[in-house]
Amino acid sequence: MKRSLYLHIGSHRTATSSIQAFMHANREAFIARGCLYPYNVKRHFKIVNEILNGHADVADVAAELNARCDHKDVPIDRIVISDEDICMRQDLEPLARLRDHFDVKVIFYLRRQDHWLESWYLQNVKWQWNPRYSHCTFDEFLAMREDFHWIHYDRYVKMLEKRFGAENLQLVVFEKDQLPGGPVIEFCRQIGFDDVSEMGKPAHTNASHSAEMVEFMRHLPLDALDGPERELVRRTLEQVDREHLGHTGKQSELILPLSARSRVLGKYQKGNAALAKRLFDRKELFLDPLPARDAPLARLEIPRDSAAAIERFVAPLILQLVANGTISSKNRK
Questions:
Q1: Distance separating alpha carbons of residues 134 and 153, to the nearest angstrom
Q2: Full set of structural domains in the chain with CATH
Q3: Strand ranges in 26-168 using DSSP code E only, listed in sequence order
Q4: What is the rounded distance in angstroms from the CA atom of residue 219 to the CA atom of residue 216?
Q5: pLDDT of 320-329, one tens digit each?
Q6: Is-contact 182 202, C-beta < 8 A?
Q7: What is the pLDDT of residue 251?
Q8: Taking residues 4-32, what's their average pLDDT?
Q9: Which long-range contacts (CB under 8 A, 24 or more apart) does 73-77 make?
Q10: pLDDT in tens, 189-198
Q11: If you count Cβ atoms within 10 Å of the first and of the last residue's Cβ in the chain, which end, N or C, has fewer?
């Protein structure tokens, strides 16, 4: 019999980092239960990209995964591969070829598009991996939302059904009331484990910066830096955000005013309703109400006065770099 292979394909901003961290931290406990989270990495972007880019033969990858399973001291009947960037790809045919070797199940989390777009904007500015989105305003970002084809959920799910079979899709609606126990615990249920209490409480990872820090970062050329240097600066800015600006609690990620939010959701309403009826036998895909009219919005603003901006951001950044030892006379060559 073929082993089960669970492909966790995203989407982004649905606790993917927390899920991956939990699976990686508890990989030995999962092996004891017959589940392999392979390669000793949190996220499987390397092997996924090798397959999708045609640099790895699917049959060879499958044989190697099965060999890893066979060499364990306990029987392994399932494997989990997780990379949220999979959902960004237009052509998943190479991954679909894994069905020749495994019983493939696809796990895809759906977050309501207005919330997803707000959160995805903040993350793109925070990480700056794509200059197209790193420095634009939120309105400019919204104008490019058709770049994110995968959040047309009905259309995207139909593509997944065609590639992997409708019976092999496991869709999860990313809303608190539809995720008893949270998104990580729900993921464990999706791969067949209803009780993972002995593995500890899942940690929350990859939280967003405050809105004003994001706006400051939008004006910085972090995407011009190499990865390690960019991460060093990002972490320092995270410290400034907490320790100098005082943003220690959960920050609002609401950017859209209610009227604009309704307009954005209107672009996806027909597809959402069709998917809800077709796969969930209900009228609405997302059940949470819209935010209240008086819900506080994230303020993507920094002082317009240059002296005030320097005092608010630049001076604390320099002080933090010195405190961290990044700027130090000891670094002189």
A1: 25
A2: 4-199 (3.40.50.300), 211-250+303-331 (no CATH)
A3: 35-36, 78-82, 103-110
A4: 6
A5: 999 999 988 8
A6: yes
A7: 82
A8: 97
A9: 74/31, 74/32, 74/34, 75/34, 76/3, 76/31, 76/34, 76/35, 76/36, 77/3, 77/4, 77/34, 77/35
A10: 999 999 999 9
A11: C
Token pair for 46: 């390397």
**The pLDDT of residue 297 is above 80:** yes
Global confidence as pTM: 0.95
Q: Which structure tokens are listed for 333?
A: 């060559």
Whether the per-residue pLDDT at 38 is higher than 80: the answer is: yes
Residue showing tokens 């800015």: 237
Residue 5 in tokens? 């292979």
AA identity, residue 332:
R
- Tokens in use for 275? 């998917």
Query: Which residue is listed with tokens 């130090």?
Result: 328
Task: Take residue 198 and report the two structure tokens written for it.
Answer: 């002995």
Q: Single out the residue of 121, 86, 98, 138 nearest to residue 209, CA to CA.
A: 121
